Structures are given as structure tokens and as C-alpha cells.
Amino acid sequence: LIPESVKITKDIYWGGNFETVTALIKNKSIDLNKIKFFIGYSGWGNGQLTGELKEKSWLTVSANCTLVFNTLQEKIWKGSLQALGGEYERLVNYPIDPQLN
Question: From residue 84, how far is each of 51, 88, 93 by CA, in Å?
Fold first, then answer.
């Protein structure tokens, strides 16, 4: 429905034309439970993120509609760790700020 959006996985798209989104919301063509807005900025130099992924500085989990749209924001990190399983699942019980431990 949203021009210029990029398909991430089945039923999950990123970005797109903001004017179209606002029009679709106003005429109720988009279910508000199936759209999220993010505000902020993250930036990397050319090749920096690829390098960080190769050195395993990031934990990644495959996106799915349940995690993205049906999980409370404060539980997404824990849900992602549980999806990874194994040694990562133990991190669920760590405090948000490890210095508090």
C-alpha cells in the first residue's frame, strides 16, 4: 500500500512515502495495529555496520509480525533473546543496566 517502502520479510515493510501513509491513516485504509513509527537516528560510516555484524558486535533475530507488532515495546528485547535460544536466552534475566547487578 505504501510506495517507496522496502520489504523486510513477509508482511513487514520499512519506510515509504509519509504523505501516502498519512492519507491512508486518515481514510482508514491502514489498521493502526499494523503500523509503527520510529523517531530517532542511527548512523554508520561506509561499511561500518557490515564490519560490526561480521565481528558479531550485534545480536540479530529474524523479524516476524508477532515480535514487531504484537509485543509490548519493553518486551521486544527479551522476546528476541528467547527466539535466539541457547546461551542468549540466559541474558533475559540480566538487568537492563549491568552495572546494577
Answer: 21, 6, 14
pTM for the model stands at 0.70
Alpha carbon distance 46, 59 (integer Å) = 20
- Between CA 42 and CA 49, with CA 45 as vertex, the angle to 5 degrees is 70
Q: What is the largest CA-CA distance in the chain?
A: 49
Query: Any idea what the Cα angle at residue 31 is, between residues 2 and 17, rounded to 5°?
Result: 20
Q: Which long-range contacts (CB under 8 A, 24 or more apart) does 25-33 make?
A: 29/1, 30/1, 33/69
Q: For 33-58, write each residue's pLDDT tens digit.
A: 889 988 888 899 999 999 999 999 99
Interacting residues of 16 by C-beta distance below 8 A, sequence separation 6+: 2, 3, 4, 5
Answer whether 79's CB lies under 8 Å from 54's CB.
no
| Length in residues, the chain | 101
